[in-house]
């Protein structure tokens, strides 16, 4: 029989182990990947995420926020220093601290920040920068909002973060024991392609995405006064859900179900997805989106019923102007401004019409040029048809070829201007298929 001393020793050891686990910190990395006023939604989403994490008592030293930060003070913004994530919502900009701005918001810096590489950050930007300085007892939450393409998430100026580079960084963090568990929320078109078939299921990482690997994500919340889409369906849904939830009871899976329902509200909606270690979705939101001490639900932000984010259809050229695809944001914004231009001068109306015609022409040229390139590329017998390349939905198998193809297409076809127009990137799947063959 074990002695009283032995029993006490075991009890003490158990207490020490519990304290050790509970002493872990929660770290948060927030990324707004877009710049320019037309992409208002991206920076509004990131400031909302920052305020939500702070409201949930995560200390600022444990949050890293990357944002180009040009929307709040853009000349087009009718209220300077103001960002909202839904029409009539609170101003999220005051107190929205940012650690990396302007040209510092790049995939290279992001990967160094994520993996806790302080020296790597300093070499890239010439100064010390905050990183996710997490350890084996810590949890990490990453949320990213911007445009995306097959196998890529974009940073300002059409700079790609490739799925292989992201997942290699995640695997490196696992090997180096830089987290206990990690959750990633990725809000972009084709966001599922960042993880599908590539994120391991056994490295304690769980992710949800706004769309599957082959479809676009959707915007919401057009603000008539600001003349901009101020949120996305996926981002606005999960953040307002967190704002009103008891994060010590609601699970990651319950939040995923709320988001999934809202994203797939119509035939033109997207399919929110989950990847990685799905057993983690049973854990509560507080494990990643809050700190236990001092947490009080619903004390800072206005709450909003998720079902009210998606409205009835209002279209232009087949584009839903209430909930357009994220990559159609510029066309949709210009079309709404033109349709609602009763108070504008005829000169301004003509300017909007010219902008709309130009963008529609760029979209058509990008599509036709891709078809021409595919036709030229498979002119020799190869056992694959043009239709195979143009309609296939293959995963990235040759990442280096894909990177080179995107770079060449952007450099050799400046008139397409993929750095400015996300809708010009709709045909990138063809490049993946070509590289694979």
TrEMBL record:
Domain named Legumain prodomain: residues: 351-437
Keywords, in A-Z order: Signal
Gene3D superfamilies: 1.10.132.130, 3.40.50.1460
Signal peptide (from-to): 1-23
Family, per entry: Belongs to the peptidase C13 family.
Protein name: Legumain-like
Gene name of the record: LOC101863767
């Amino acid at each position: 029989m074990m002695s009283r001393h032995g029993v006490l020793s075991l009890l003490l050891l158990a207490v020490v182990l519990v304290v050790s686990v509970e002493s872990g910190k929660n770290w948060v990395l927030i990324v707004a990947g877009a710049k320019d006023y037309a992409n208002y939604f991206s920076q509004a989403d990131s400031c909302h995420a920052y305020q939500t994490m702070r409201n949930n008592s995560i200390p600022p030293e444990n949050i890293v926020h990357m944002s180009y930060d040009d929307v709040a003070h853009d000349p087009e913004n009718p209220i300077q220093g103001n960002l909202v994530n839904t029409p009539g919502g609170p101003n999220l900009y005051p107190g929205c601290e940012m650690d990396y701005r302007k040209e510092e918001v790049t995939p290279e810096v992001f990967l160094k920040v994520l993996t806790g590489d302080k020296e790597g950050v300093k070499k890239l930007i010439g100064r010390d920068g905050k990183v996710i300085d997490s350890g084996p007892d810590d949890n990490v939450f990453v949320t990213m909002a911007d445009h995306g393409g097959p196998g890529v998430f974009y940073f300002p100026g059409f700079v790609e973060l490739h799925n292989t580079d992201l997942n290699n960084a995640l695997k490196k963090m696992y090997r180096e024991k830089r987290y206990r568990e990690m959750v990633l929320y990725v809000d972009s078109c084709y966001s599922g392609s960042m993880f599908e078939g590539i994120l391991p299921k056994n490295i304690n990482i769980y992710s949800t995405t706004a769309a599957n690997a082959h479809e676009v994500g959707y915007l919401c919340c057009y603000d008539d006064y600001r003349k901009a889409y101020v949120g996305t369906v996926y981002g606005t849904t999960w953040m307002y859900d967190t704002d009103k939830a008891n994060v010590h009871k609601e699970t990651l899976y319950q939040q995923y179900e709320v988001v999934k329902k809202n994203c797939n509200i119509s035939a033109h909606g997207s399919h929110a997805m989950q990847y990685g270690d799905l057993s983690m979705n049973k854990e509560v939101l507080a494990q990643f989106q809050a700190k236990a001490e001092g947490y009080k639900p619903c004390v800072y932000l206005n709450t909003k019923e998720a079902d009210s984010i998606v409205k009835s259809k209002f279209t232009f050229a087949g584009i839903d102007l209430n909930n357009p695809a994220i990559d159609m944001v510029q066309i949709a914004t210009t079309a709404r401004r033109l349709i609602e231009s009763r108070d504008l001068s005829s000169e301004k109306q003509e300017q909007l019409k010219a902008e709309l015609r130009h963008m529609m022409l760029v979209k058509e040229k990008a599509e036709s040029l891709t078809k021409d390139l595919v036709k030229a590329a498979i002119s020799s017998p190869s056992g694959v048809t043009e239709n195979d390349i143009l309609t296939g939905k293959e995963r990235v198998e040759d990442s280096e070829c894909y990177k080179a193809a995107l770079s060449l297409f952007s450099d050799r076809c400046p008139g397409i201007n993929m750095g400015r127009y996300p809708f010009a990137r709709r045909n990138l799947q063809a490049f993946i298929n070509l590289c694979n063959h």
